[in-house]
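Action item from last meeting closed. Structure (222 res):
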């Protein structure tokens, strides 16, 4: 499973990248709006920090505008993937952008049929939003399972990018279902690593080692 960071915060991206397990980054207008400075310059810095797909979202709502913005984003750096919303206009824009060789991440996907149409339009990634479905008492992970099955049935060349993952169990479930990618906030990535028994075990190993060293030193002194 590939791991993407779902943030536009450079500090988090640098720290995540230093762990050596980050394969890409997803941003959206809300995430970019939280950061200071020029979004274009920020995206370029992100591209230089992580050598993998970096999603940059269009904000136009008509196909023509989406294509214009998408071409602009894609022209900034070869790592940039154009994120389009899963609407009729987004579908048209995806068809145009993908036929020009630009990679598209279809975002705001909340149903298997939206994912099917996105793949048919040539999207390279579809992003089912798990957490936002859970938020409205609808099991988000079932959507991931449905999309993985549909894409497998027809061998679509489109990766399932499980998005809106809010905690480590979301990541575990998405991985068990065979999602190609999981995108998550930095705090969730850290949560994947953390285990109290690891911390406790390490503490004990180091204490025992120190104790043994002191005993050896005491023996040598006699
Ligand atoms: C994905 O690309 C989105 O940026 C993101 O996963 C949305 O997550 P949220 O529902 O926690 O805002």
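Sequence:
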């Amino acid at each position: 499973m590939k791991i993407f960071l779902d943030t536009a915060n450079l500090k988090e991206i640098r720290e995540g990248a230093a762990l050596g397990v980050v394969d890409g980054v997803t941003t959206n207008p809300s995430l970019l709006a939280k950061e200071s400075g020029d979004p274009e310059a920020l995206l370029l810095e992100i591209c230089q920090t992580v050598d993998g797909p970096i999603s940059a979202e269009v904000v136009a709502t008509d196909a023509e505008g989406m294509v214009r913005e998408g071409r602009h984003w894609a022209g900034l750096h070869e790592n940039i993937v154009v994120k389009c919303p899963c609407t009729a206009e987004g579908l048209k824009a995806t068809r145009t952008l993908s036929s020009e060789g630009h990679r598209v991440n279809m975002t705001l996907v909340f149903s298997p049929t939206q994912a099917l149409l996105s793949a048919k339009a040539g999207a390279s990634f579809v992003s089912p939003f798990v957490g936002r479905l859970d938020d409205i008492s609808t099991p988000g992970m079932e959507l991931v399972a449905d999309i993985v099955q549909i894409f497998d049935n027809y061998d679509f060349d489109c990766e399932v990018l499980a998005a809106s993952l809010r905690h480590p169990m979301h990541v575990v479930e998405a991985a068990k279902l065979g999602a190609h990618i999981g995108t998550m906030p930095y705090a969730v990535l850290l949560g994947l690593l953390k285990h109290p028994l690891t911390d406790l075990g390490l503490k004990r190993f180091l204490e025992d080692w120190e104790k043994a060293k002191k005993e050896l030193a005491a023996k040598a002194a006699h």
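Note appended to the action item: The mean pLDDT is 97.
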